[in-house]
UniProtKB/TrEMBL annotation:
Gene Ontology terms, MF aspect: ATP binding; kinase activity; thiamine binding; thiamine diphosphokinase activity
Domain Thiamin pyrophosphokinase thiamin-binding: 187-256
Protein name according to UniProt: Thiamin pyrophosphokinase 1
An annotated GO BP: thiamine metabolic process
Length: 281
C-alpha cells in the first residue's frame, strides 16, 4: 500500500488493494463484522495474500461469505480459502468448526488475554507467524465493516494506533465495503485518488483521534488545511472531498487518521478504465 520515495515521503495507492500486485506481499485479516461484498473481489484479494487470518467469529463470517459465493469450505476441497491462522478467545466459534478447519490446514491459536482485543492479539500473532515463515509483509488488510457498535469502531481505531507496537512498521489498512481507513504517521504523504472517486466527489476526512495535530498542510482537497491545528472540540476535517485532483498530499507533524469513501470504486471494481487517475492539479 505504500512505498518510500525518499526519507520524508510516502505514497499510498488504494487501487493496489484491488489490483493485487504480485510483487506486493500482504496479509488479510477477517474480523467478526459483516462482510458486505456482493461480488468476488474479496475472494481475489484473499487468494493472493501471503498470510490469511480469521479472528474468532470472523471465521463464521468468512464461511458464510464463501457460501454466498457457492463455496462450502467444510464439505468441499478448497484449500486456497482455508485460513492459515485462526486466532481469538474463541467465544464466538464452536470447537467443531475449529477442528474441521484444523484438519484441512488451519493453525488454531487461542488468545484468552482479556486485556487486549482479539484484533490486537491477531496482529501480534500474525507478526509471529510471518517471522516464523520468513515472510516479509508490505501491508496488512483488515476487513472490518461497522456493525453499529461505536465502542467497537473506536476500539478498532485504537488498534490502528497501537499497530506499530504489535506488528512493526507494516502499514495496516482497515477495509470496509464503502471505505478505507489508515494512519498517516508524521511526515509527508501522497495519496493517489482513483478517477471515479474524484468524479463522484466521494468523501474523505482527516481525524486527530487521541491527541491534537499541531500543524498539518494539505493539497488536492476541496477544503485544504494550511498549517492548521486539528483537535476534537475545535477543527476536524470531516466530510471533505477532492478538488478535481488525482492526488492528495498531507504533511503532518503528528499521527492522524485518514479515511475515504470507496463506494463508487467498489461498485465498479471490474471496470479498470474508470479507475485511471486524472492529471494532478
Amino acid at each position: 500500500m505504500q512505498r518510500d520515495l525518499d526519507l520524508n515521503r510516502t505514497v499510498w495507492d488504494p487501487l493496489q488493494i484491488f489490483n493485487c500486485d504480485t510483487h506486493y506481499k500482504y496479509a488479510v485479516v477477517i474480523l467478526n463484522s459483516p462482510l458486505n461484498w456482493k461480488d468476488d473481489s474479496l475472494l481475489q484479494i484473499w487468494k493472493k495474500a501471503q498470510i490469511k487470518v480469521t479472528v474468532d467469529g470472523g471465521t463464521y463470517r468468512w464461511l458464510h461469505y464463501l457460501k454466498e459465493q457457492g463455496i462450502d469450505l467444510l464439505r468441499e476441497n478448497h484449500s486456497e480459502y482455508v485460513p492459515h491462522l485462526i486466532t481469538g478467545d474463541m467465544d464466538s466459534c464452536t470447537p467443531s468448526i475449529l477442528e474441521n478447519l484444523k484438519r484441512v490446514g488451519s493453525m488454531i491459536i487461542e488468545t484468552p488475554d482479556q486485556d487486549h482485543t482479539d484484533y490486537a492479539k491477531a496482529l501480534f500473532q500474525l507478526g509471529q507467524y510471518a517471522t516464523k515463515e520468513n515472510i516479509n509483509l508490505n501491508g496488512i488488510y483488515v476487513f472490518v465493516d461497522s456493525s453499529g457498535r461505536f465502542d467497537h469502531i473506536m476500539g478498532n481505531i485504537n488498534t490502528l494506533y497501537k499497530s506499530e507496537k504489535l506488528i512493526g512498521h507494516i502499514p495496516v489498512i482497515q477495509i470496509a465495503s464503502s471505505s478505507l481507513t489508515w494512519i498517516l504517521r508524521p511526515g509527508l504523504h501522497n495519496i493517489v485518488i482513483p478517477k471515479i472517486l474524484v468524479q463522484n466527489s466521494s468523501w474523505c476526512g482527516l481525524l486527530p483521534i487521541g491527541a491534537p495535530v499541531n500543524s498539518i498542510r494539505t493539497t488536492g482537497l476541496k477544503w485544504n488545511l494550511n498549517n492548521a491545528t486539528l483537535q476534537f472540540g475545535a477543527l476536524v476535517s470531516s466530510s471533505n472531498t477532492y478538488d478535481n485532483c488525482s492526488e492528495v498530499t498531507v504533511n503532518t507533524d503528528s499521527s492522524v487518521i485518514w479515511t475515504m469513501g470507496i463506494e463508487p470504486l467498489q461498485k465498479n471494481i471490474n471496470n479498470y478504465e474508470i479507475f485511471t487517475s486524472n492529471n494532478c492539479c
